[in-house]
Amino acid sequence: MFELIRRMKERDEKGFTLVELLIVIAIIAILAAIAIPQFASYRARGIESSMVADARNIATSLEAAFADCQAYPSLAATAGPAAPTLTAPTGCTATMPTVNISSGNTVTVTGGTTFTITVDNANARSGRSPVTMTNAGGATTCTWADGSNC
Question: Would you tell me how many other CB atoms lie within 10 Å of the CB of residue 64?
């Protein structure tokens, strides 16, 4: 091996040997095998964070509307990206807030004396979609599809 390197230097040959190129390819393959699954996990967690953020932002808007109407507004199933206006409860003439829905999320809000917000995303991990946020008796809870808390 050393003899080959010495002869290459004497001839002033430049370049990489096949072995060196194979080693570089192997290193790149190992790094890719580690990075690609991590990237997929980061992406899924980002989607799930957007689902919870949408639910919390809508809950804030619902509470603001409740202060004016003494009832929670509703929203038919709406896919994001969108900024729909909540539907006022029966008998309420107050201006209802608009809510922002992130891309890929589908939101449904059931209002009345309590509220239920459902945020669904087809790209979330198994057991994570939909996210359901409910308010009953003044306590707001957020749960994933698998029953764990958000």
Answer: 15
Q: How far apart are CA 53 and CA 99, in angstroms?
A: 11
C-alpha 130/C-alpha 2 separation (Å) is 63
End-to-end CA distance of the chain: 60
Residue-level length of the chain: 150
pLDDT in tens, 27-83: 999 999 999 988 888 999 999 999 999 999 999 999 999 999 999 999 999 999 999
Q: Are strands 115-120 and 106-110 parallel, antiparallel or unpaired?
A: antiparallel
Residue 93, CA distances (Å) to 22, 25, 59, 78, 88 in order: 72, 67, 20, 23, 7
Q: CA 121 → CA 25, 34, 41, 75, 125, distances in Å?
A: 37, 26, 15, 17, 9
User: How much is the average pLDDT of 5-18?
Assistant: 72
